[in-house]
Amino acid sequence: MSARSVGVDVGGTFTDLVSVDATGSVTTHKLPSTPHDQSEGVAATLALLAGATVSRFVHGTTVATNMLLERAGARVALVATEGFTDVLHLARQDRASLYDLSRHHPAPLVPRADTVGAPERITPDGIHRALDDVGVARVVDEVRALAPDVVAIALLHAYADDRHERRLAEALRAVLPEVDVVLASEVFPEIREYERTATTVAEGYLRPGVARYLERLTARAEALGVPAPGVMTSGGGMRSVRDAAHGAASLALSGPAGGIVGAAAALRAAGFATALTVDIGGTSADVGLILEGEPLVEPGGRVAGVPIALPRVLVETVSAGGGSIGWIDDGGALRVGPRSAGAVPGPAAFGRGGAQPTVTDAHVVLGHITAAALSGGITLDVGAAERVIRVLADKLATSPERVARAMIDIADAAVARALRRVSVERGVDPRDCVLVPFGGGGPLHCCGLADQLGMRTIFVPPHAGVLSALGLAITAERRERMTSVLARTERLDVATLAHERARAAHGVASGEGWQRRWVARVRYVGQGHELDVPVLEHEDGAALAARFTALHAQRNGFTLAAPVEVIGLRHVASGPPHPVRFERSGESGWSASRPVDDGGRIDARLDGPAVVTLPGATLRVASAWSAVPHPTGGWLLERESA
What we know:
- The protein is α+β, with helices and mostly antiparallel strands.
- Among the domains are: 4-67 and 212-251, Nucleotidyltransferase, domain 5 (2-Layer Sandwich), CATH 3.30.420; 73-208, Rossmann fold (3-Layer(aba) Sandwich); 478-574, no CATH class.
- 31% of the residues lie in helices and 27% in strands.
- It is built from 16 helices and 34 strands.
- A hairpin with a 2-residue loop joins strand 14 (285-291) and strand 15.
- The longest helix is centred in the first third of the chain and has 31 residues, at 193-223.
């Protein structure tokens, strides 16, 4: 038996496993998740591979995301430049909601009482106030009195001069050897005091919990004869378990990133280049954007209200999954989410004690989900789904079928809004894109979403129900390093840019078959945000500025008559991806159902309304849509012309 590359994705309801052998052949498994300890569910799926030889194991985890959502991380002491210790509380001084004055930003991860001021000051021109021995001793004493789990050090302008940060770290490690010390100059060496500090604090906050989880997971894997896991990062690449434990903040979107990687691979195999993706699972829906066959990677953003300025695949999450609960608000209106039935007890239709109406129950009531569509040891209880939907219907004095359709429409509207945000706000017209739905619920909702966005083509990828795990199994190992530049493009000739590329790549090891690339963070002088622009070999600053200007026009619809500057440079080294075959096998692995009045005849082309049961997912072909099997093993849907 050939060695296999294995990917395991933990969702809110199911834990999915995909193994890919050396020829690219795919095998899939699905089991219920174990929210109390994700590693248990992962180990249970790995146990299904008994007797197989596993050469590589890649994991996508929501542990870091959950810790931020639940505020369940480590106690962090922050050391900041004296006089600037309120940086996390001042933040950007923007409103949480422009028109809702009652909404507030989440509290910082470090309270004021756990912040220590360091008597030092570095400016862009050099040291303004030197850090002396007395100052170091005072900081060490104050930090020791706080007894933190982790110390985060984020001093002014340390991206340009990290001497004071390194001196404090050395002193703290000598006195508190059991306490981890995290430096902003290592985590995020770029301008912007607030984002740099917040990202460094998030790293310290997450690191102990992520490390403990990965230790448990590694032990469980080794007991099953499986190698230590690689871990998917928010940027869409894989890191070793050791590197991941020391880069916890880069795992904040580990789970959703795997799906985008898998979708991009399937999209390229099908011959498409630009797509909107939607991954609908049990608790939420994740939407993303693929341009020129690659997931769009952005400089960073907020996760659970916490700014993390590290590169990440563009993913926006909305609370609209199969487990999202339907309810009636004080005004008598039907609502769906954000609360979810999760994996335990789950939807009523799963027969595991769920007693509240969910989107999945709505689909069961309408006949969109049948017993044949379920996997992972789940059985279908149609009667339970009808009972919980009827409770809502009685309160609204209408029929269960009408309530079920309304719940699905409400969930679709929430996801469609997110799809518009990730596309229109970046200068991309959804009507020019293919919609790629996956996850257990993505193909169920794809026609409704496409109708709301005016999209006419849908590509349901092969292995749609476990595509995130497939993306993990085939993803390439990636190593990255950032460096600050802060120079106008007219001052960057070919030699200078070559020097900056070498500086960014310093210390990043790579192996045979690896690819290297450099990405510059570029903006107009005085602008408050940057765009990521690839840096090509043998080009100067003028060529870089020209490509930035074209990208700025595409994304924002305008250009400025202003100088262009490079803020930082990121080096990315990527190993070869694991091969995978996207092809339709001799056995279809699917079945289809139609309304009784058409005789039940199944052709290669399915005109809606129809339901196709896929392995691990269900495809609903709505009226005015037709579906045909695609040579890759997926399905291609097209809307009839008006």
